[in-house]
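Exam revision sheet. Question 4 asks you to relate a sequence to its structure. Input first:
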Amino acid sequence: MSASSAEGSPTTSLFEAAISRYNEGADPAELLADFEAITEQAPRQSAGWTCLAWLQLLTDQPLLALRSARTAVKLNPQDPQARLNLSLALLETGTTGVREHIAIVQRVMVMAPDLASELQQSMADGLQRRPGWPAMLKIQSWLNG
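Answer key, structure tokens:
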């Protein structure tokens, strides 16, 4: 889950606390309400929407994740984690458009090795929290292919 871009918002401390709980291994379902509150309080903060989409994906809520991920990408089109989340949600809902977002993520991974490393960690985290996740395994094979 991406924790960037939260500085300076009125929800920074709630955001940081929720990210900390996630990193400590909290159940994603327990954090959904926090990130719903974050996105309500700061609807223009892409990081909140990115994290909410990730949690919705981890808790098997692909339609909600699709909405959240689209919002995150709209607010910050350069965020590869938001694009990864959107790709997962598109796959899980059978919606078209995955290829475009995967191509953008691939370009970012080539041009920014630090971001590529973060994305690899995120994908590994997703598979640890949701073992055998078909959409993640498919995207991981495309990105590492």
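Marking note for examiners. The helical segments are 12-23, 28-41, 46-58, 62-75, 80-93, 98-111, 113-129, 134-144.
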